[in-house]
Amino acid sequence: MVNENPYHLIGSFDGPDETPYQGGHFQVDIQVPDNYPFQPLKMKFITRVYHPNISSQTGLICLDILGKEWSPVLTLKSTLISLQSLLCSPAPDDPQDAVVAKVYTTDRKKFESTARLWTQGIYKEGESSNLSPVAAAGLGQEDVDKFTSMGFSESQVIDVLSVLDYRGPNIQNLSDDAVVDQLIA
């Protein structure tokens, strides 16, 4: 319970095996509506997740059972299990995060490596790291600074540069304009 409120909960589950989320621990903010179970639970990820059906910025979730497909027979436990299953089976045709969905459909290796990096590195829940978020993402501080000096937040720049794989020789293949386009998208 959050602040002794039985209608505001924090749920958690481990990342599914044999996925980029394996080894991760994910927390979910849960709001229970007054007329539950006749209305769906309101859920969003607290832990940052790189996934087509989860907003990388807000944690909002695109999952049919949290909306029009809700049924009063669904429980808190079954809904959390459905979230865990969503990590196994992304639905890029109905995305919450279009940028991540595009990477998922066009470059699966990049998607998996970025999702793994978020799970094991920069956004790993429950562990502190001596690495800065920039270093944990495998990015250069000067590269991040170039875009934060334009007024973008560091976390937004890290997210976009990670999605674009702005590392090593690949930096030469990406113009600053292409990065800015993604930052303002």
Rg from C-alpha positions? Answer: 18 Å
How many separate domains? 2
Percent of residues in helices? 25-40%
Beta-strand residue percentage: 5-15%
Pfam families: UBA_3, UQ_con
Domain UBC core: 1-124
GO molecular function: ATP binding; transferase activity
Keywords: ATP-binding, Nucleotide-binding, Transferase, Ubl conjugation pathway
General description of the model:
With 185 residues, this protein is α+β, with helices and mostly antiparallel strands. The chain has two domains: 8-88, Roll (Ubiquitin Conjugating Enzyme), CATH 3.10.110.10; 98-184, no CATH class. Helix content is 37%, strand content 10%. The protein has helices at 76-88, 98-106, 108-122, 133-136, 141-148, 154-163, 176-184, and strands spanning 8-14, 25-31, 42-45. It has a three-stranded antiparallel sheet, covered by helices on one side. Helix 2 (98-106) crosses helix 3 (108-122). The longest helix has 15 residues, at 108-122. 29% of the residues are buried. The model has no long low-confidence stretch (mean pLDDT 89).
Summarize the structure.
By secondary structure, this protein is of the alpha+beta class.
Helix and strand arrangement:
Blueprint: E1 8-14, E2 25-31, E3 42-45, H1 76-88, H2 98-106, H3 108-122, H4 133-136, H5 141-148, H6 154-163, H7 176-184
Antiparallel strand pairs: 1-2, 2-3
Helix pairs in contact: 2-3, 5-6
Task: Name its key features.
10% strand; Ubiquitin Conjugating Enzyme; 185 residues; nucleotide-binding; 3-stranded antiparallel sheet; 7 helices; 2 domains; alpha+beta; elongated; transferase
